[in-house]
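Q: I have two molecules that I believe assemble together. Could you output structure tokens for the complex as a whole instead of separate predictions?
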Amino acid sequence: MNFLFEPLAYEFMQRGLLASVIVGVLCAVMGTYVVLRGMAFLGDAMAHAILPGVAIAYILKGDLLIGAGIAAITVALIIGLFTKDGAVKEDTAIGILFAAALSLGVALISTMQTYAVDLSHILFGNVLGVSVSDLWLIGGLSFAILLTVALLFKPFLVISFDPVLAATLRLPAELLRNLMLVLLALTVVVSLQTVGVSLAAAMLVTPAATAYLLTRRLLPMMFVSAAIGALSSVIGLYLSYYFNIVSGSAIVLTATAMFLLGFLWKRIKSV
Amino acid sequence: MTHTPHRLEVQNISIGYGDKIIMHDLSFQVPHGARVAVVGPNGAGKSTLFKALVGLLPVKSGRIIIHGESLGVHKDCVAYVPQREEVDWRFPVTVNDVVMMGRFGQMGWFKRASAHDRSLVRKSLEQMGIADLAEHSIGQLSGGQQQRAFLARAIAQEPHILLMDEPFTGVDVTTQEVTLNLLDHLHRKQVTAIISTHDLNLAASRFDLVLLLNHRLIAFGTPQEVFVKENLTQAFGNSLLVMENGMMLVDECCPPDEEHHHHAEAQ
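A: Yes, here they are, computed for all two components at once.
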């Protein structure tokens, strides 16, 4: 048991663990929509798109989360602008912005003196650097996002499964789709500190994809996904502590291992 | 809410995508409880008309009036059974979940399903003969069973107008029979049914009214009035074959996934 409790003797580990679990659950739940609506590419792009915002906030010594939030919403709006009336296809617009934002972010960060360390924290997260106020922010935002998802469960189900029914039921489909994008952007922002920009997309997709293999209804899929997200975070963080690897990588690799197990289980079951 | 007059009025509507107009200046009126077959060649604008009636595609001009008020005033009184390719069959929902969605409009977005909602869902499933499949994933069902699940959803919605896009194309005999029985059942319950089909024979024998389209109104009336040579020639052009005994055949390919030739006759 000492093996489990030893890392928790450090307060930064306690905060890190709590933050990872919250983010793991949040990403996993939002991830069900990402997987079902085929938004994996968008999630990835969104994660990279916040890089310039984070870099500017870093240079100005402002709050990273605020910088990330502003960048995410800006990019979502620009994607909307490019794709309006079918001027540019959505995945093309996403591809352009994804690359541009990543380049701009790296360019900005490369002007800093502590370039290497800062870049690695932003790209891969720095879960051990979570402060008490960070934790409050992560917890509060996550609660708000999950509450919105719970309240809008039925409308989100209908616009995802059957947009035509959404129209006959007079749902404000456009508004709901944009709201989902904003929630997705906020999720990426929240996960910045624990898994970092480049791995946030994996936490959005991998647990949800695993849950998709194991369940056949949306609500159970969300719960299983959340459990996998939380478990990956805990196991990943312990692995990172004992083997001295970057926490974001450890968490994502754990989630990937679970996906492979789920995939094998499904294969064996169907034989 | 009182719903008189129970009817659908389409006044001079034009519909299309962008600059392209697919349906020009279409007008017709459907009395309540009527069974209307929508007939016309491929690409004549049948599905486009349905999208406009559902509210998916805004009309460029003209008005659609239901119960004397503009489309959208009465929420969820129009139910739509989509074509197969419009649905993501891999989505994690059970048959029961799909049918329950038909109740969402009346249930409210934040409430749980009541006993009344659940019993309506149960009855709709039984009526379509798929009650035993309620807990199956929608993706596990056969094409015909999937269509019946969507029909069950449409009934659970308790609509005043039911729209079905090609429900007789590419389904098994049982599903065709269940669909036709449903049509008669709805007729008795005074629900208006508007259904697009390639089967002119079916349109002539099982429907009260026929709407013949080819990017505009060709004819609207009883099957006897509509299915005359002049109208059919205008609608189908070269794919209309007139036999020596006066029988008329329409020879054209069905929608893309159905590559066989489809023959239909009319009196």
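A: One point stands out. The mean pLDDT of chain B is 83.
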